[in-house]
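Design review, sub-item: ligand-bound model
Attendees: FS, YL, KQ
YL presented the inputs for the heme C complex:
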Amino acid sequence: MNIRLTLIALLFTATAIPTALFAADIQQVQKLHKAHCFQCHGNEVYNPKKTKLSDQMALLKRVTGCSRAAGADWTAAEIKAVADYLNQTYYQFP
Ligand code: HEC
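KQ shared the predicted structure:
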């Protein structure tokens, strides 16, 4: 393979892989959320206008507490991923 082809191939790999991973991650996170988080409430509690949460840290604490209440044995990374997902989808805390 000549150098120009290698560079083009590298460029494609560098842009294609993160996008694919990102899509898979979101699906994984939505699956986790759906499997554990609708026993007590639905999406309606994620209301940025009515929330008592003030920032991403408060959201992370809430998701930690709720995941324990849900009996979900989530890792710290899973909790963070769900908190980020909820923030992106509903709260948009900076
Ligand atoms: C055992 C019951 C229970 C389960 C299961 C549960 N929650 Fe909750 N959750 C609550 C209660 C109670 C509140 C408080 C509702 C209120 O303030 O009106 C709450 C509130 C929240 C809030 C804050 C809403 C806001 O903006 O004020 C978030 C975020 C949240 N839950 C996330 C989750 C996630 C993520 C899961 C799944 C891991 C989950 N909850 C599972 C009981 C539960």
